[in-house]
Amino acid sequence: MILYTVVPLELVLEGMDKERAFTDVEINGITMTVEQVSANEAVIVRLISTDPQHFLDPALQPGSRIRLTPSLVGHEHVPLQWQV
Q: 3-class DSSP state for residue 5?
């Protein structure tokens, strides 16, 4: 690959050596790969679905942010759940 740019090579390749941590999660029955960007937020990287309608939903497009919020049911603490 040849890259023609006026930007210094150090800036172009900055962050390429960092390992990115991806996680597969299921939200509303839709499996997706996300990258956690903070303690309560993640970015959708890709959808894993056979339903074409999921790919047409703007809320599920790659790059969209989702929040991780705690949810309580009665008095029992339920583990954190992802929300779009």
A: coil
Per-residue pLDDT of 44-71, as tens digits, reads 999 999 999 999 999 999 999 988 776 5
Domain that holds residue 76: 19-83
User: Is 8 among the domain residues?
Assistant: no
**In the chain, where does DSSP find H-type helix?**
9-12, 52-56
**Number of folded domains that form the chain:** 1
Q: Which residues pair with 69 in a beta bridge?
A: 81
- Determine if the pTM surpasses 0.70: no
H-run or E-run covering 71: strand 65-73
Q: Which helix or strand (DSSP H or E) is residue 56 part of? A: helix 52-56
CA dihedral 11, 33, 42, 12 (to 10 degrees): 0
Question: What is the number of alpha carbons within 13 Å of residue 59 lying toward its C-beta?
Answer: 8
